[in-house]
Amino acid sequence: MITRSAATLLLLAFAALIQAEERTTRIDSPDGKVAAIVTTSDVAPYVSYTVERNGAEVVAPSALDVRLQWIGSLADGAELVEVDQDKFDTTSTMPWGKARTIRDHGSTATLEFLTKGKARWRLAFRVYNDGVAFRYEFPKQTELTDVVVEAEQTEFRLTGDPSVTYLPLPNFTSTHEGLYGRLPMSDLPEDQLFGVPLLAVREDGDSVMITEARLRDYAGMYLERKGASDAIFTSRLSPLPGKPSQCVVATAPHSSPWRVVMLADHPGRFIESQLIEQLNDPAEGDFAWLEPGKTTFPWWNGEIEHGKASTPDNNFEVNRRYIDFAARNGIAYHGLSSVHGDRPWHVQEDPGFNWPRPDADTRVARDDLDLPRILAYAESKGVGIRLWVHWKSLYDHLEESFANYEQWGVRGLMVDFMDRDDQEMIAIQEEILQAAARHQLHIQFHGASKPTGEHRTYPNLFNREGALNLEFLKWSDTCTPPHNVNIAYTRAMAGPTDYHLGGFNAVARSQFQPQNNRPVVLGTRCHHLAMYVVYLNPMPMVADVPEAYEGEPGFDFLVDAPTTWDETRFVAGEDGKYLVVARRKGDAWYLGGMNDWNARTVELPLAFLGNVTYEARLYTDGDPSGNSPNAMKQRTMTVDARSKLSLTLACGGGFTAILHPLQAE
Fold first, then answer.
1. Residue 608 belongs to a domain with what CATH number?
2. Which regions span the lipid bilayer (predicted)?
3. The whole model's pTM is what?
4. pLDDT level of residue 306 (50, 70, 90 thresholds)
5. Burial of 56 by CB count in 10 Å (0-12 exposed, 13-18 middle, 19+ buried)?
C-alpha cells in the first residue's frame, strides 16, 4: 500500500525529473533590464519562451510552434542540438525616418533543432533594451526543401490583466480600416481576429506592444485570444487565396518575419523606438534621388473640382490651380488621380476606382486629360506629379508602365485597393517597390495593411494607409479625435501613416455632417496641425482646396513643418486620451499634441532641450469648448530644459510649437 506521503514524494520526484530534462537559454539586453528565456522540454509546451523586464515576467511561458505540411508540429519531439549566442552593435543612417541615425544594439541567440524526421529548423532571438524579437528559420537541407506552412502557433501569454487597445478585423482580406476598442484582457472576445500592432498597458503604465517586422515573402500575422480564463494571444497567418490550409509556400532557406514584443514604461515611449526598423535589412543601391515632401490630393475635395466637362483645357485649369498653390508654398508634389465623373487619369471607359476594369491601361493617359501639358507645367514650377493607380491594373503592365512614367517625368504613385496581406500580395508589393526603385519612383500603398519596417530596405516606400483615416469623414462621423489619438498609440507606432492630412475646415461636433464635396473635419485646427508632427510621414497630404489655406491662421506652421526628422521624443500623454511628441530637425524642435473629446490642462516637461535656450512659437486652441474649432491663438515665449509648458487642450483639441535656439549675445 502506498501512503499519501509516499505518493507525494513520487510526484515530486517525477516533477524533478521533468525539470531536470528541461534546457533553458537566457538572452539579456545590453542594459540587463530585458531578458528572453527559451525553454525546451519533453512535455508540452515543447518549446516556449518567457520575457522579463526589470526582473518580472511580462510574457509568461508561451508556446512556440509552426505546423508544416508533411511534417506537422516542429516543436513536438524537437531535439535542441546547438545554441549560438552573440552581441551586436552597429550604427547606420537612413534617408528619412523618425531619426537620422539608427543604432542596432542588442544580444542574439540562434537555437537549432531537429524534428522527429531529422529536418532542421531554427529559432533566432534578438533582445534589445526596448523589446524582444524572434523568428522561425528553415535552413537549406535535403531533409526539408519545400516549406509549406499550414499554421503558426506562437503564443503571447501576457501576465496580469492589462488594458488592451485592439483592432478587430472581420477576416484576412480587409483594408485594416476600423475603429479600435479598449478592454481588459480578460474581457476580450475569443475567436476574434485582431490586427497588429496591439497595445497592452498595465495599471502602473508598463506597456507591451505586439507586432511583426520584416514581412517579406510570408503571410501577415494576426492575433486571436484563446482560453476563457487565460491572457493568451495566439498567432494566425493570412492564408493564400483559395488555399485555406496553406499560408506560406517557399523553398528553403526561408524565414518568418520577426515576432516583436516591444516594452516600455509608458506606451508613448514606443514612438521613440526604432526596433521595427532595426529588424529590417538596410537599403541596397542608390536612393539619393529620393525627395520626401508634402503633396496635394484633390480627390479629397470631391466632384467640386470637376464640375465642368472633362476636356483637356478644363482639366489643365483644375490641375494648374493646385500646381501654382504647391509652388507658392514649397509643397513638393501634386497628386493626380482622375477627371470629371470619377474616371481615372489613364485609359478606362467606365467610372470607378475600387476594382480593375477590363479596358484599364495604366500605360496610356486618357485623351481628355492632356497629361503631357500638365507634366510640363508642373516641371516649370518645380512641382512633382504623382499618379493614382489600382494595383491590379498596374501589375498587369508593371514594367512598361513604370518605364513610361520615368520617361514622362512622373515622380511617384499611390497604389491602391490591395486589401490583403497574404504571401502572394506581400510578394507583389515587394516586386512593385523593386521595379519602382529601378525607375526612380516613390510609392504610397493605399488599401494596405500595416507597415513592418520595410521602408528601411525600400526607402522609396514613403507611407502606407492601413488605418481608418480622415477620408472617412466624407461619408461618416467615425474619424474622431479619440480615434486619431488611438491611431497615434497603435498603428502609427508601427511606421509611416498616411492619414489624408490637411483638412482646414473644422466644425463643432454638434454641427458635423459628412459630405463628399469640400468635406469638413472633426477636432480643432490645432489638433489637425499636430498630426504633421505626431504621425511619422515623409509625404503628408495637404488635401484641402488651396483657398482653404492661404491667409488662414496656422498655415505657416503647415508650410514650415518638416517631413523627415533627426530625433524623436515622447513628451507626455495617456493612452487613448492625449499624446504630445517632440521631433527635431537640425537645431529646431517641433512639438505636436493631440487630445480626445475631454478638455484638459497639461504640464509639459522640456528636459530634452539640453543646455540650449529656445524661442518657442506656440499655436494653441482658441476655444476650450471646441465649439469654434478653427479659432487659434499664437504667442512666443523663451524656454529651456528647466521650463514647463502649461497648456489647455480644447475638447477635440491640440497644439503645435516650433522652437528655435536663441543666439548667444
1. 3.20.20.70
2. none
3. 0.95
4. low
5. exposed
| Confidence check: pLDDT of 31 > 90 | yes
pLDDT score for 120: 97
What is the number of domains present in the chain? 3
DSSP 158: E
51 strand-pairing partners: 36, 59
Q: Which residues pair with 226 in a beta bridge?
A: 232
Average pLDDT, the chain: 95
Taking residues 140-159, report their average pLDDT: 97
Residues 6+ apart with CB under 8 A from 180: 165, 166, 167, 483, 486, 487, 490
d(CA 145, CA 142): 6
Which DSSP helix (H) or strand (E) runs through 338? strand 338-339
Q: Once rounded to an integer, what is the mean pLDDT over residues 5-9?
A: 46
Give me the torsion for CA of 50, 137, 465, 334, rounded to 10°.
Answer: 140
Q: Does the pLDDT value for residue 6 go beyond 90?
A: no
- Residue 279 is classified by DSSP as T
Question: Residue 110 maps to which CATH number?
Answer: 2.70.98.10
Tell whether 546 is covered by a domain: no
Supply the pLDDT for residue 307.
63
Which grid coordinates are listed for 185? Answer: 484582457
**Cα separation, 53 vs 34, whole angstroms:** 5
Upper half-sphere CA count for residue 283 (Cβ side, 13 Å): 22
Please identify which residue in the block is written with the cell numbers 514622362: 408
Q: Which domain holds residue 521?
A: 468-538+563-665
Assess contact for 447 and 500: CB atoms under 8 A.
no
Residue 305: the pLDDT is: 64
Among the three residues 215, 250, 278, which one is the final residue of a domain in this structure? Answer: 278
188 within domain boundaries: yes
